[in-house]
Design brief:
two-stranded antiparallel sheet, about 15% strand
Amino acid sequence: MGNIILISRKGKRIGERDIICSCCHLERNPVWRYSESNIGTVCLCSECKVKIFENSFDRIDISNLRLCEQGGGFETNRRKH
């Protein structure tokens, strides 16, 4: 199987039985099912999920979250005394 690239981060955890991982081809429990990828629906185990996420969406960094942007207009129309 080629490189798996996820298109969407939305996935569903499936833990009722052992399912074969689409990346390492081993039976794992739990796995996450992603319906949007470059090869269609895939199931990923915990170890492969981290690798595929890093390849698909880069590493998660605080600068990517954009929590520290300036802006907002809280009390901008307030008179300064």
